[in-house]
Protein 1
Amino acid sequence: MSAFIEAENLRKTYRAGKLEVPALRGVSFAVQRGEFVSIVGPSGSGKSTLFYLLGGLTRADSGRIVIDGDDFTQLSDAERTVMRKRKIGFVFQKFNLLPTLDARSNIGIAEDIAGKNGKNDPAYFQKITDLLGLSKRLIHRPSELSGGEQQRVALARALINKPAIVLADEPTGNLDSKNSAIVLAMLRQSNKELGQTVMMITHNPEAASYGDRILHMRDGEMVSPELDPQWSGSKH
């Protein structure tokens, strides 16, 4: 069975004048449909660069990314934008909510961007907001929500268009331990109940342990767990 996501020999170097900084040095891996995969590593290990490549937000210098049989690296910018809208949901460390809109409207923005033109699914909206415990907070603006609630709104926004893939970049980085555990449990629950393939970038081994599988990065490469001294913990 072919993998749902395949990365082959990804390389990316950033250039500033004459200075070259290698971010990825030939990264390869495969992810099956419905998996929850955590990617851990210290700052500067290449995690965020990999996130941007997988989300089609930047291009690799070389290598391939194949998602559900489509070679992402061969698509035009316009085609990648369409693919992001249809197949990928993003969750960032910074919640990126619009302060003037309530929670309901912040979630609905994703539907508008996807071009549904009013063809939304109220039953699915209710299912997502119930799952994330937001049903009674939808009329509140971000300033009236806790950090954990804001991140749950961001997660609902990522899930609302039924993406095949959810990419989460340090989703608990701005949360305390209690809210981190809540958000991670909900991300895990949405993975199981809604069937999305989840890839979570984190520097936190405890957060990573919520995944089915953990990939370790260091200096732009995938490494074995024994080479990552930060790692400890067990799967949930």
Protein 2
Amino acid sequence: MTKTKAKKPHYVNNKDFLQAMIEWNDRCKVAKENGDSQPPITNYIGECFLKIANHLSYRPNFINYTYREEMISDGIENCLQYVHNFNPEKSNNPFAYFTQIIYYAFLRRIQKEKKQSHVKNKIIENMNVDMFLVQEQEGNVVNNPYTEYL
């Protein structure tokens, strides 16, 4: 007997997402022709960005980072920066386009955090231990009471 898995609905419907992007692009073209500024994205498009970023952050290669929220924020920020670059005439898959943007935003955040962690470790490594053992109070050198307690 074979068991069939019930298909879960996708968390982002690509057809609806594409339609929303087409409508937003049309509004952008009209605003550009009228000399207006770019219109804000719709709530649905923003929700799609958020869902894509959240679900991508649960992949095994991203799940255990303590700065997952920053990764998600960076991904959404990059989507908002480059939303105008999506061309529905070239591609009919906005889900894949924005997933790639978020994926690379995650990788950039990981690299930044690794660099920051390396700098922090180097500072701690080069720190003088006497700084923690001896303190100055009102011009007098006093041993740290906590280190004496230990």
Protein 3
Amino acid sequence: MNLAMIHMSDVNLKSYSDTSYHYEELKSLTRYSFEKVQERVQLKRSVSRIVTIFFSELEKLVPTLHIASMYALLSEFPSAEKIASCHLIHMTKPLGNASKGRYN
């Protein structure tokens, strides 16, 4: 009976569209992606701030801190003292691996 009343009431009902579902999913994924990009920006700022506090010389030596080779270097040698006390061969290994041979 309800279906008949809806049909007779002359209400313009939109039929289900598969594309509207995909648009909603796309909007949701776009929002999620934007949130992740913002989180990444915040994490990069935090890394830069920490490096500036504890290892300010590094920022003057490299074009950017946010490359795989610098992250590998900081993971292996988290302070200027550690880098100063290590042998050059020990430093080039993590740099070479992270940079895919560029910094051998």
